[in-house]
Amino acid sequence: MATNTGNGFRRGAVTGRTQFQRPDGNWQKRDERTGQLMGVKNDGDPFKGVAKEPDGRDTPNA
Questions:
Q1: Which residues pair with 41 in a beta bridge?
Q2: How far apart are CA 25 and CA 31, in angstroms?
Q3: Where are the domains of the chain?
Q4: Which of 6, 19, 11 is nearest to 47 (CA)?
Q5: pTM: predicted TM-score of the whole model, two decimal places
Q6: DSSP for the chain, written as a single string
Q7: Beta-carbon neighbour count of residue 12 at 10 Å?
Q8: Per-residue pLDDT reduced to its tens digit, 47-56
Q9: Residue 15, CA distances (Å) to 4, 23, 33, 43, 44 in order
Q10: pLDDT at 32 over 90
């Protein structure tokens, strides 16, 4: 499991989640198991520690 360090970075990857950039430039998370869309990040920066789609970091349906 990923843990925050308090220094602007995360140790470990967030598993079971991926992220993609929407056409409006915001990043959105997706649950790999269910495909359900999750949170949106509005500042234009990607979520920390979450794999981008597709990159193969997690196994299929992790």
A1: 27
A2: 20
A3: 3-52
A4: 19
A5: 0.71
A6: --EE-SSS-EESPEEEEEEEE-TTS-EEEEETTT--EEEEETTSSPPTTEEESS---SPTT-
A7: 9
A8: 988 888 876 6
A9: 14, 24, 10, 23, 22
A10: no
